[in-house]
Amino acid sequence: MSNTETGIGKIAPVRAVAKGDGGNRTAWMGLIVLLALVPLVASPFHLDIASQIFIAAIGALALMVLTGIAGQISLGHGGLMAAGAFTTGILYKETGAGIWITLPASVVAGAVIGLIFGLPSLRLRGVYLAMSTLALHFVVIYLGGEYEFASGASTGIFLDPPVIFGYELYDGQAWYYALFLLVAGTYWGCSNLLNSKTGRAWEALHANETAAEALGVQVARYKLLAFVITSGIASFSGALFAYYQSFVSVEAFTLFMSIQYIAMIIIGGMGSLTGALLGAIFVTLVPYCIEWLMETVPYLGLDISTASSASHAAFGLLMILFLVFEPSGLIGIWKRTVARFSSQSKKEGVQ
Amino acid sequence: MFDLELKDIELHFGGLVVLNRVSLGVRSGELLALIGPNGAGKTSIFNCISGIYRPTGQINFLGTSLIGKKPSAIAELGIGRTFQHAELIPRMNARENLLVARHNHVKSTLVEQWLRLPSARREEADHLAVVNDVLDLLSLSHLAHLPVGGLPFGIQKIIGFGRALVADPKILLMDEPSAGLTQEEREELAYHIDSAKNRLGIPMLWIEHDMEMVSAIADRIHVLDYGRSIGDGPPSEVLEDPEVIRAYLGTTQIAQAVDTAAAPLEKG
Question: Where are the transmembrane segments (chain A) (predicted)?
Fold first, then answer.
């Protein structure tokens, strides 16, 4: 009972849904144990890279939900992270507020900004929506700059290490574990949402707004909800970034940062939370790999002054390569590899 | 007396008259086939009922006016529909696609969903049970785990039919459910439509080009031509009506369909 002929042109490309449904629980547990042991052997330099990856991962998970699941393109991700960082920085500088106040305040600030900048999504789509979210970036950076100027903190705002239950979060190991837990929690929360009414409504409006509406999904409400939730998370990761760097300045939040996050979800694999994690790892490591290349291959013609533009160029190239040759991203490669090995082992088992 | 009633529906796109004073009604437990040549305005009627188009006139469903309501609010009243091109979510599997249609029945709050609290988990299991029942009913269980984007179009259409059923609709609108299906799949679909009608006892409005199927299982036929109603009545009468024959298919096809309809439809 199949008729592939009539389906031609109507069959969409198969994109497997990978939402971390805990299908392979033992592998996940093993990975978590392994990651928990890393600080015991890693150098401070490697722990620093890991922490950067964790912060990026939280932001990438948020963008994956917004763009990869709900289908709303945003170029305002760097702006949202700046909003979180500045909310935390300003609250700390002005009132001396602790992390239990600054972090929730950053989430709320991000959510409110997300609501406002989500409104154009009710009218705009695709590139037009992306352009309107770009405004978000510049508004936040402008406001941040104005604050820096007005408060005389023209070089930025300094933050002391946050204190959690009387313990000062200062050294690399402590940061590693704290951020690790937060990434795990964000992943778990996002995964729960995707496997619920809300996530399915996002998928539905992503696929076809008219059909989703006819199924009873209040498209406008769920679009705004996607903006609110993911902007809250992005702002949260910006606040963590501020604490981790002990410093907030508009210079850190460039438009390139927003593009890096888009690179993470494309390279990781659209529509997959695990892909967002892989993308965050990959994109965070690229500049380090370029630097390493410069050191190990002396005649490559690269030096310190060209390192930054070299990594920018590498991004552009990688994005194009992934879009053309591997649209399903790292998660697609991973799945194919797993499938190949499992089918091979099956064959061997038969023989 | 009608569960769903349309009165003097008019719809214009610019200067083009799409629907010209169309009136029709469906009773509970009745399967009303909506037929007419391409461009007659059949799908437009569905889009008016669903709230996607904004016509003038009256549309009442179980005592509630649907005019001016948002599509999602209309769906919430229990108006389920299928689409000509299935319109499934390609990267989700059949089970997830059907779960989407349980949207209005899910009661758990955002926080319950986010933290996957026991209440949310229990509810999810209940909805999954409803979905699995419908998948069983339509003999789709063995395909339920595959992304629907890779399935043959005919199967996608049946999943689309299942998606409309799983929402517990109070009325079902089906837009050319048999288009793109093989003969075997059509027979199976006719069986599913007929048995759903008998089991649920709800009104059904059915756009169809396959006259053989229509004359076999429809209770009544409403004929549209260029946005006007040109006939309404039992299949035997309507398909003999000279105006319908002239406007629509051409003599031979109708005659054939009526002949075949005389023999009972073989049910797969």
Answer: 27-47, 54-77, 97-119, 126-145, 174-194, 224-244, 250-269, 276-294, 314-334
